[in-house]
Amino acid sequence: MKLVIIGLGQCGSRIADEFARLNGRARSRRGIEIITGVFAVNTDAADLSGLTSIRPDYQHRILIGGRKTSGHGVGKINELGAEVAREDGDKVIDAIRTARHFFETDAFLIIAGSAGGTGSGSIPVMTQMIKERYMDKPVYALVILPFEHEEQNEERTTYNSATCLKSVSSVADATFLVDNQRYVRKDSSLRNNLSEINALIVEPFYNLLCAGEEKKNKYIGAKVLDAGDILQTLVGWTAIGHGNSPLPTFRLPFERRSNFRKKSTETHKGIMAMDEAMSELSIRCKPMDAGRALYLISAPAREINMDLAKELGDYLKDIASEAIIRNGDYPRGGSNIDVTVVLSELSDVEKIKTYYSRAAEFINELKTRQVDIQSKQREFEEASKNIPSLL
Ligand SMILES: Nc1nc2c(ncn2[C@@H]2O[C@H](COP(=O)(O)OP(=O)(O)OP(=O)(O)O)[C@@H](O)[C@H]2O)c(=O)[nH]1
Ligand SMILES: [Mg+2]
Fold first, then answer.
1. Phi, psi of 322 (to 5 degrees)
2. In terms of DSSP bridges, do strands 292-298 and 324-330 run parallel, antiparallel, or are they unpaired?
């Protein structure tokens, strides 16, 4: 499957930069392309020049809102981010057309952090503009939710996230949710290392996008997971994850022939990898709430067999019993069984509901504060009523 990637704001641009590297890896290691164009869009000129892998020209690193922000960002006001996107979004639409292999694109993936200003405000607007312009291609959003410490310190963080999520989910074909905080738990030393978090965020897309693009027979699975399966799976709120489990590095030749013990070891390793994928999903959610799901097994050809595929299918059906499940196998990779899982059409996501209710409280508080301020101002004016003015 081939994507056009558009990163908005600092967070979105950096993750788009990471996708550019992912495509470089697919090209150099596997000789295939999974991305037809990568663009970064920001109101902040300095952030755009800090990227490393996206082409360094104004058609791939696009500055918007130059007049309003003088190239310094919108300072967390996502309404301003939305306004700037409405005014300058055409620059992005024009740039997309220049992508050399644009006609091969299966879908768009638009990325932003929900808590800032530029990305959070512009992602719903850009998604809508691109959908109107390219009606035949699905547009997916990848939204990065803030760290817990950001939510605790700043009400705007929650408010921006709520408005961003409500708006983008109403226009995007599917919205991938990525909770920054989940990546901190995986390894606490990552807290300050956003670039390592970004690499973890894009990793599950690697095999998923590569599997359907292979041309050589030996890398084509018995059941190929291609763009059609992915497009059919992605609807509404979506989580993605992957896990892997190492295979023995050395095996005697006679063990190659499938015997019962080897099969059950592989199945066990496959289940372990799927377990990891489920517990490392990009957002905490209940598999029971998924209306659609997919899994992809990637492993050396000799390790993939019918039992493994069936066991993983049964396992996923057990925990996501309401979901229509699609699957595939991808005979690639060296020393791991790798399992990618996508849960989509989620009917409930606790974290999003919390954003909505906290933002509603915040709006009420703002109204009360406003009334307070106005009455204090009136008192002040009243007190100065009998004082002569020098003007
Ligand atoms: N995973 C990840 N999160 C990031 C990164 N950069 C920023 N964030 C998160 O994104 C949110 C802030 O959004 P930014 O992208 O910095 O804001 P912006 O869209 O540039 O908007 P303004 O700077 O306000 O104009 C916070 O929740 C950060 O934790 C990054 O490189 N990776
Ligand atoms: Mg910024």
1. -85, -10
2. parallel
- Whether residue 74 has its Cβ less than 6 Å from ligand 1: yes
Q: Are 282 and 290 in contact (CB under 8 A)?
A: no
Work out the number of other CB atoms within 10 angstroms of the CB of residue 203: 16
Please check whether residue 333 is in contact with residue 296, taking contact to mean a CB–CB distance below 8 angstroms: no
CA distance 92 to 233: 27
Q: Is 312 left (phi over 0), alpha (psi -120 to 50) or beta?
A: alpha
Q: Which two tokens stand for residue 293?
A: 């799901």
Q: Which atom of ligand 1 is nearest to the CA of 157?
A: 27
CB-ligand 1 contact for 241 (6 Å cutoff):
no
Which residue has 């696009």 as its token pair? Answer: 62
pLDDT digits (tens, 9 = 90+) for 41-88: 999 999 999 999 999 999 999 999 987 888 878 888 999 999 999 999
Which strand ranges, in their side-by-side order, compose the sheet holding 107-113?
61-63, 35-42, 3-8, 107-113, 139-145, 174-179, 236-246, 336-344, 292-298, 324-330
* Minimal-distance CA residue to ligand 1 atom 7: 11
Tell me the best of 10, 111, 164 to mutate to test the pocket of ligand 1, counting ligand atoms within 8 Å of each CB and taking the most: 10
299-329 residue pLDDT tens? 999 888 888 889 999 999 999 999 999 999 9
DSSP state of 72: B
- Say what the pTM is: 0.93
Burial class (CB in 10 A: 0-12, 13-18, 19+), 50: middle
* Closest ligand 1 atom number to CA of residue 75: 24
Per-residue pLDDT of 334-349, as tens digits, reads 789 999 999 999 999 9
The response to whether residue 117 sits with its C-beta less than 6 Å from ligand 1 reads: yes
Instruction: Give the model confidence (pLDDT) of 79-96 as tens digits.
Output: 999 999 999 999 999 999
Residue 5 near residue 111 (C-beta atoms within 8 A): yes
Q: What is the rounded distance in angstroms from the CA atom of residue 157 to the CA atom of residue 22? A: 29
